[in-house]
Amino acid sequence: MQQSIVATGRLPLFCFFVALIVAFIATRINVRLIRAKIGWFRDVNVGEMHIHHVVFGVVLMLVGGVAGLIVSAASQVGYAVAASVFGVGSALVLDEFALILHLHDVYWEEEGRTSVDAVFVAVAVTGLLLIGLRPLSWDYGTPVNPAALIVANLLLAVVTLLKGKIWTGLVGLFVPVLLLVGAVRLARPGSPWARWFFVGRSPRKLAKALHREERWRRPVIRAKIAFQEFLSGRHDLPPSRRGRRSR
Asked: Which of 48, 57, 61 is nearest to 243 (CA)?
């Protein structure tokens, strides 16, 4: 750790990474205990107002962010502490990302899975940065103009994302060869690319995409949901837009 983390100046990023994961797991344990009404675990309420933990997350992100700006540049430990505070705040905010996105308490509804996905994305991106990968790096070891390579990678990333391959597009920003694979492969049936180019234009491709989705993608999604439910609890409440729901 001394050589790979501290000596390379990645201690603040490492502390952010650890704080993000630990705070997210601790938060999910807490809200599951609240939902089960176990012990003294209860929602935070001020009168009739329920205070969501995203509020505390925003405050901690501000504290950690401002502290990181004013701490001495020579103090990696100071930056690490600020990064840890920022990581805890980020976990609290991302854990309620779905509520921010929908402007409604969908925490335990199907739409609430978006929050868990957002945390997974943050953890994945931070992990890739931590091992030394950089998105759209200029150092490709080729005589091609670096700016042209970056533009090409961005275009491939856009195509990959439009084809509904979110994780391939995300990781591909760090490992460009994945973008090429994602861009040339068949789009997912519910993606914008499929709606534009398959529906009404290429029934054969749409049928093939549906077959691949059912055979290969669905089992992966079921496994992902099972892992999410093990980690974060079941998002099993019916969709609702009425009133305030407590956990």
From this structure: 48
Separation of alpha carbons 161 and 168, rounded Å = 8
The answer to whether 54 touches 96, Cβ cutoff 8 Å, is yes
Mean pLDDT of the chain: 88
Phi and psi dihedrals of 35, rounded to 5?
Answer: -65, -35
pLDDT at residue number 160: 95
Q: Which helix (H) or strand (E) holds 164?
A: none
Q: Residue 97: what pLDDT?
A: 95
Give the span between the Cα atoms of 191 and 229, in whole angstroms.
Answer: 25
List the beta bridge partners of residue 109: 237
Q: What is the DSSP letter of 239?
A: P
Instruction: Kindly give, in sequence order, each residue whose CB lies less than 8 Å from that of residue 60, ignoring residues fewer than 6 positions away.
Output: 85, 86, 88, 89, 92
**pLDDT tens per residue across span 68-91:** 888 866 677 889 999 999 999 999
Backbone φ and ψ of 175, nearest 5°: -125, 85
Residue 60 has φ and ψ, to the nearest 5°, of -65, -35
Comparing 36-45, 84-93, 190-199, 209-218, which segment has the lowest mean pLDDT?
Answer: 36-45
Half-sphere exposure (CA, 13 Å, Cβ side) for 89? 18
Using CB atoms within 10 A of its CB, is residue 29 exposed (0-12), middle (13-18) or buried (19+)? middle
Q: How far is 126 from 148, CA to CA, in rounded Å?
A: 26
39 to each of 32, 106, 242, how far by Cα in Å?
12, 24, 28
β-partners of residue 49 are 46
Residue with tokens 């856009």, as numbered in its chain: 158
